[in-house]
């Protein structure tokens, strides 16, 4: 795919940054997606019958993994990916489909975080879902994303309605102060 990097509006010193951003993107997504798959397995071990010390240890490990590794890895992936959009000029259909699948992955991320908090705060009353459910919620969008980004299929046959493809010259529903 030819992007602006190939097309030439980016200066040379920015072009060599592409592999750096791509490495950061891939480093981040390995920890993000790997961590999201590991979390439901850790959550399944939140069983008060394992004893207070072990319960405390697994709860702390899950909390620290989510807040200090998985969520920062998600931020790194999204930030590096956003820079790559402009460096590689990925304004094409397969990329928009990829972003839709990323939304599903972010929703799975939020769901796992919500389960983590509700299990931790309910003193053993709330049980986490069976691990295969959140693991499937993570793996499905990841597989779709990887297929789209690695195969880069031509999805140009998808037709969007006219009103989505051209400016409608409508007013904003709020007053914008004039400078
Ligand atoms: C908001 C989130 C994301 C954005 C904005 C984004 C954006 C991008 C962009 C612009 C590229 C460069 C494509 C190219 O060079 O042709 C890229 C590469 C890549 N992305 Fe993402 N991405 C995001 C999330 C993800 C996720 C969650 C995954 C995996 C589960 C992923 C997997 C990859 C892979 C494997 C590549 C390398 C593809 C290649 O070089 O051919 N991305 N991403």
Descriptive overview:
It is a single chain. With 179 residues, this protein is an all-alpha fold. The protein has one domain (7-154). Helices cover 68% and strands 0% of the residues. It has six helices and no strands. It has helices spanning 4-7, 12-15, 17-43, 52-88, 93-121, 132-151. α3 packs antiparallel against α4. The two termini are 41 Å apart.
Task: Tell me briefly what this model is.
With 179 residues, this protein is mainly α.
Keywords:
179 residues; 0% strand; elongated; binds protoporphyrin IX containing FE; single chain; mainly alpha; disordered N terminus
Residue-averaged pLDDT, rounded? 89
Low-confidence runs (pLDDT<50, min 5 residues)?
Answer: 1-7
How many structural domains? Answer: 1
Major sheet size, sense and barrel closure: none
Q: What is the helix/strand order? A: HHHHHH
Secondary structure elements and pairings:
Layout: H1 4-7, H2 12-15, H3 17-43, H4 52-88, H5 93-121, H6 132-151
The structure holds protoporphyrin IX containing FE.
The site of protoporphyrin IX containing FE has 21 residues, from helix 3, helix 4, helix 5 and helix 6.
């Amino acid at each position: 795919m030819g992007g602006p990097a190939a097309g030439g509006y980016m200066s040379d010193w920015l072009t060599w940054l592409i592999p750096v951003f791509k490495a950061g993107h891939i480093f981040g997504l390995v920890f993000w997606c790997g961590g999201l798959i590991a979390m439901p397995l850790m959550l399944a071990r939140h069983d008060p019958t394992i004893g207070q010390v072990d319960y405390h240890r697994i709860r702390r490990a899950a909390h620290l993994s989510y807040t200090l590794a998985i969520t920062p890895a998600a931020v790194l992936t999204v930030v590096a990916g956003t820079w790559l959009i402009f460096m590689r000029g990925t304004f094409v259909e397969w990329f928009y489909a990829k972003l839709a699948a990323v939304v599903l992955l972010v929703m799975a991320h939020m769901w796992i975080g919500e389960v983590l908090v509700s299990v931790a705060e309910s003193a053993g009353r709330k049980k986490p879902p069976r691990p295969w459910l959140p693991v499937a919620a993570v793996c499905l969008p990841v597989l779709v994303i990887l297929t789209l980004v690695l195969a880069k299929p031509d999805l140009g046959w998808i037709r969007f309605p006219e009103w989505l493809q051209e400016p409608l010259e409508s007013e904003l529903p709020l007053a914008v102060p004039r400078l």
